[in-house]
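yo

u said u wanted the structure for the complex thing, so here. seqs first:
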Amino acid sequence: MSETYDFLFKFLVIGNAGTGKSCLLHQFIEKRFKEDSNHTIGVEFGSKIISVVNKFVKLQIWDTAGQERFRSVTRSYYRGAAGALLVYDITSRETYNALTNWLTDARMLASQNIVIILCGNKKDLDADREVTFLEASRFAQENELMFLETSALTGENVEEAFVQCARKILNKIESELDPERMGSGIQYGDAALRQLRSPRRAQAQSAQECGC
Amino acid sequence: MLVGALDTVLDSNARVTPFRIVLQAPGSQVSWVIASGASLEEVKTHWCWLEVNLLDSLSVFENKEDITSFVNGKIKGLIADESGGQQDPEGYREAVVRLEQRFGLPPREKLIARLTCCLWKTHVPRQGWMYLTHNHMAFYSYLLGKEVKLLLPWAEVTGVERVCVGRVTDVLRVRTRTRQRDFSMFLSMDDAMATITQLTDLALRRVLPTAGLRTPHTLIHTALTKRALEDHALTQDVLSLFGLPRTESVCEVRVCALWTPHLRSHTHGTLYATDSYLCFSSREPGVCSLIIPLSEVLSVEKAETSSVLPDPVIVSVRGRRAFQMVGVCDRDTLLEAVTDRLRMLRWKHAIYKGQHSQHTPLISPTPYYTFCYDTDGEADKSQRHVISTRPLISLNQSRMPKHKTAAERRKEALWEERFEEFGRGTHMFRTACLHKLVAMGIPESLRGDLWLTLSDASSELAAHPGYYAQLVERSLGEVTVATDEIERDLHRSLPEHPAFQSPFGIDALRRVLRAYAHHNTHIGYCQSMNILASVLLLYAKEEEAFWLLATVCERMLPDYFNRQVIGVCVCVCVCVCNGSIKGLADLWI
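structre next:
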């Protein structure tokens, strides 16, 4: 895949241990389910370029360890994330109950305008379900999150989760979000685009050049 | 030679005697008052004494530092002689009263040390006293009618370092969040630095009780003295030098020479006797070190003194080996202390054994599973609590390549040679060559064995017979957060290795991890311990793997696995600061 892109977003994948965060990431990048996987130690990393509303966006995804005691380590990676996948396991109420904590962390430590999508993973294990779709979508609504139920095993909704999140960020850039602000978690793909996007600055620059 | 270093200074300050002999080494800003007198005659007698007693011997020395340190040592020795080894209780009491008057600290605030030094305030040095207490650093100076008072709680100190400022070469800089203070002209910079760093560290531990850093019990408030601090520092140094358990404390320290057969000579160094070890470290770092667990020791005796071998001490250990140390000063006290420890250990061991012989071996008839994550057959469950007595790798031999590679065989030969010459077991001579050999990679056939002896997990194993079996039994039915987390990770530990694709391996891993979580609730279960344990289980028996895991988590990497994984955080910080993963740091920061 070519390395040209319009934007670069920093993404986080967070949630309790064993909810399938790394499998989601693997499914998204490699398009298949990862059997026999180790748990994440500290933090892992993956990136992929996707196409959203006529733009190429490179996602730089930080996949974190879920065990409680590693939070002090993973928290340092929150800074300047533009988007986050908050993952719980639909077959485990415990992982759902922990969502509030994760949400507080993300809102506090990442970019203010962080776009979070809630992912109820392991959708394929519907028989063992402990958290209903309705309940989770209500939670998402109350906390202004997007919401999807995903399955890293079958790949259902995995790409969508990342794409929807990226699309929302792009929309935000159109309206309120300033990518140039420190810690926004967004970078431009190449310099030419930046000048196109902020004509005022380009004019100011050219005026300066004339001055010299 | 001394002329450049000595001069007599007349001081108008009435509080000190008018005539003094001051020693100043060229290039150093510190000068030492080594004699004083009320009249010129008095000083002259001192001067004569110096000429007679010191100047002759000074011509022996080559450089000026040696002279300074020699003269200092001499003078200090004289003072100590005069005061009969007492640590100036009068002065101490006075200092306590002064501290209380000037700073109004509560009386329970214990004074640990009082140092004379100089505070730099906008390029002006202010000579005065620094008081180090349990919670505060205080500085007081009264010079030319100007009073300088400074009180700084340790908890506010963010850094202590030695720097150079302009012409002043050795400055101790104390940083707080808002500003920094520079001190210089300590009598002993090393000493001041050590005490200050230790106190800051202690304060940090008190401020962050949740960080899982425990304040050593020897340093609790009431017992805190300068002496305790020094002892603690020594103990910490020795424990980290030899990787001993944190509960050990140093009893005796002796300079001596150890007979090292591989060098056909004696090696000079220091012998440390701790609660359950005898350790030796050569004066030249890395030449040779030795760790003898007292549990291995059969006897410690003194031998006949001869002109070639003064004050020899012979330590005999199991396996018909003995170590000889010579030049051990005050060997009787040392022998007494060690023999006492030995007797106590044997007595403990006898009691432990007595208790244990009544204990029935572990075969629990009750199924311990209250819930089930995996879907193994019923037949397997009965096998779950039977402790495996073989390394997992030996069970999977059929799937492994039968032939050892040539490199592997060559390495094995090298190790065999080494065992011949340097001995085998925990008390082998540890030299620089050993480190190289380990770094080359230990051959698979020796891994379990060498891990046990080099880390000294073998002593723990020997000291606690049957303990692991008890732990396994007790942890069987437990349901805690830790057991929950363990279950989740059992199938995520070396999943690609055949040993962990069968219930046999998984069960062994489960037992080890659960037993450890039960054994050390302070750590419980930390992700990554599963991977460690899996690798250990491959090459060591189950019980050995347990003690190896305990050694790694408690002795080799303390603070890495506790609830706050503070060691990991520190590591990440150091990495980011040093720029070794600069790419990562640059990416978003």
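Residues 1-17, 358-381, 585-589 of chain B have pLDDT under 50 and may be disordered. The CA atoms of residues 269 and 537 of chain B lie 38 Å apart.
cya
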